[in-house]
Automatic annotation (TrEMBL):
This is Small ribosomal subunit protein bS18. The keyword Ribonucleoprotein applies. NCBIfam families: S18. Gene3D superfamilies: Ribosomal protein S18 (4.10.640.10). Part of the 30S ribosomal subunit. Forms a tight heterodimer with protein bS6. It comes from Thermodesulfovibrio aggregans. HAMAP family: Ribosomal_bS18. GO terms for cellular component: cytosolic small ribosomal subunit. Binds as a heterodimer with protein bS6 to the central domain of the 16S rRNA, where it helps stabilize the platform of the 30S subunit. Keywords: Ribonucleoprotein, Ribosomal protein, RNA-binding, rRNA-binding.
Length: 77
């Protein structure tokens, strides 16, 4: 049996913050931060979101700050 090789088209993920030229990720912008979290409250990885490493570090720090002052939950049950 011969397997057919299927070619899939994958769109290259891009950093949303670099594209919009955002220098600082604000921890008070809860609506934007929620889009980088799962429904259970976990932070999505770079691999899934496509953010660059610099902005992923800023994003993680912003989410953790928002959690510390109760703008975002640590977990959702």
């Amino acid at each position: 049996m011969q397997q057919t090789s299927q070619r899939r088209f994958f769109r290259k993920k891009y950093c949303r913050f670099c594209a919009e030229k955002i220098d600082f990720i604000d921890y008070k912008n809860v609506k934007m931060l929620r889009s980088f979290m799962t429904e259970r409250g976990k932070i999505l990885s770079r691999k899934m979101t496509g953010t660059c490493s610099r902005h992923q570090r800023q994003l993680t720090k912003a989410i953790k700050r928002a959690r510390a002052i109760a703008l975002l939950p640590y977990i959702e049950i």
